[in-house]
Amino acid sequence: MTTIDKTKPVLVTGATGYVAGWLVKKLLDEGYTVHAAVRNPDKKEKVQHLDKIASESPGSIKYFKSDLLVDGSYDEAMKDCELVFHTASPFVLDVKNPQKDLIEPAVNGTKNVLDSVNRTPTVKRVVVTSSCAAIYSDADECAQYPNGEITEEIWNTTATLDHQPYSLSKTLAEKKAWEMEKAQDRWELVTINPSFVMGPFLNPNATTSESFSIVKQMGDGTFKMGAPRMGIGVIDVRDLAEAHFRAGTYPEAKGRHIISAHNTDFYEMGSSLLPKFGDDYPLPKKVAPKWLIWLIGPMINKGMTRKMISKNIGHKWKANNSKSIQELGMSYRPLKETMEDSFQVLVDNKII
């Protein structure tokens, strides 16, 4: 069993990201020294939300310039660390060149971070942010498994460069991580496999995540004629940060962990906002028929292909999260709280 020395610094890659921000907050609140690896530490507007959190917590933060695609760029940030969180990876569905924009940064970025781990003798444990996308591509796949649900034993075999390339990037990156872990015996790997991440943004400037655009579409009228029954899982970003922290610091944590609170769909997500925001915003009040989404979906979002629509709309998505509850002691907040808090941040920042 691996125990982590709390007095040693902890590295977080992609520290200005949506998920990483909440993880950094958790580490700072727990009194850790965070080595925050970011692309450009001199861009103060990118890190000011983290500086503010650090100023109000017992922990401290130090920034290091690093780039996913530059070999060795994490060596300095990793010095003296026993624990490394690798969260940095692009999450966009609409890309021009999936190989260059998704696959290479995800796989080569993981390889570069773990090459640094191999060069850093103090590192004992690495937590990699993978995804449920490394387990499945489309909701219709759930039906083929026992109880109609995905588990940690399953790997994605259906994603390609042309269909669900984001899922392919997460699958290849996680496989690369396990391959590198098996090639040595000094450090251990734990992976976190979240479903669709929702919840409030700590950094209102970080609005490139796909999560952000879905909440925005719920409130800007995109779905006012109805939201699709597009089967997905949802996890609150704050619960996800807690799961990362436990995966890093619980001695008994090992292997992959599905981190997902709700088996749901876009219509149910939108409906959960109606009691609080329904009078003031054009939220979806009914289900959009599949044929309509099939016609207009690709115009609303280029990442939404007809094949994706047919394999996800009207199909139940279901994941088994029992390992996270038993091994990491996780409990999850209600969907309504996650959705309301996500929406409120967009209202407060005048984005909706």
TrEMBL record:
* Keyword field contains Secreted: no
Highest taxon of source: Bacteria
> Is Oxidoreductase found in the keyword set?
yes
Which Pfam families did the record assign?
A: Epimerase
> Where does the NAD-dependent epimerase/dehydratase domain lie?
10-254
SUPFAM superfamilies per the UniProt record, alphabetical: NAD(P)-binding Rossmann-fold domains (SSF51735)
Tell me which UniProt keywords the record has, alphabetically. Answer: Oxidoreductase
Entry's Gene Ontology molecular function annotations: oxidoreductase activity, acting on the CH-OH group of donors, NAD or NADP as acceptor
What protein does this entry describe? NAD-dependent epimerase/dehydratase domain-containing protein
Q: Which organism is it from?
A: Parvicella tangerina
